[in-house]
Amino acid sequence: MGEEKKEKIKVIIADDHALVREGIAKILSLEADIEILGEASDGKEAVELAKKLKPDVVLMDINMPNVNGIVATREIKKENPGVKIIALTIHEQVDYLLELIRYGISGYLLKDVTPDELIKTIRQVFSGKGVIPPSMTPKVFDEINKLAQKDEKITFNLTSREIEILRELAKGLSNKEIADKLYISEKTVKNHLTNIFQKMGVNDRTQAVLLGIKHNIIDI
């Protein structure tokens, strides 16, 4: 009997720099167990490709135009929770990492990783493991401890998405601008605003923002 064919790890590369995408693709193409399904130059394209091609792993740059990697991660995981996403970034910032963990990433890599580390991480997340840089582990635990020690605050039972929209209101964004930024429809934004106003007992955007600031739900 012949040797059983090994399952390939299907990967999408999302980065707004063509040279970075090409460099990663060249590295991964040398691995027999990795198949590159496609490349995306921004978050919107990454979401569309992931929906169409059904990858196992997405290598996701964080800072991309149109739709950033954080929003793209959230949308991809919402559509297909089984996709493993590895964030690729130059930022060694815990707030980025914690937000991405909340949206379901499996790995977080700094862009100065070696090719061997990148390949190893792809295989690890594909097998179900989580990977973060060892240099960031103490910072993550420090931040988690700080969050645990914070006093509970009044949130009016707002969902995380509603709080997200409230933050954008505080920046003075229109419904359309919020919809474009969060990669949702303008109608969905209006529905969220209706819920926010009802929960907070206010009648307009200004009142909602002021009340949100007063109770430390958002800041400016």
UniProtKB/TrEMBL annotation:
GO MF entries: DNA binding
Pfam families linked: GerE (PF00196), Response_reg (PF00072)
InterPro entries tied to this protein: CheY-like_superfamily, NreC/VraR/RcsB-like_REC, Sig_transdc_resp-reg_C-effctor, Sig_transdc_resp-reg_receiver, Tscrpt_reg_LuxR_C, WalR-like
GO biological process: phosphorelay signal transduction system; regulation of DNA-templated transcription
Residues recorded as bearing 4-aspartylphosphate in the entry: D61
Domain HTH luxR-type residues, every copy: 151-216
Keyword terms, alphabetized: DNA-binding, Phosphoprotein, Transcription, Transcription regulation
Response regulatory domain mapped to chain residues: 10-126
PANTHER family (UniProt xref): TRANSCRIPTIONAL REGULATORY PROTEIN DEGU (PTHR43214:SF39), TWO-COMPONENT RESPONSE REGULATOR (PTHR43214)
Function noted in UniProt: May play the central regulatory role in sporulation. It may be an element of the effector pathway responsible for the activation of sporulation genes in response to nutritional stress. Spo0A may act in concert with spo0H (a sigma factor) to control the expression of some genes that are critical to the sporulation process.
Protein's recorded name: Stage 0 sporulation protein A homolog
Species annotation: Thermovenabulum gondwanense
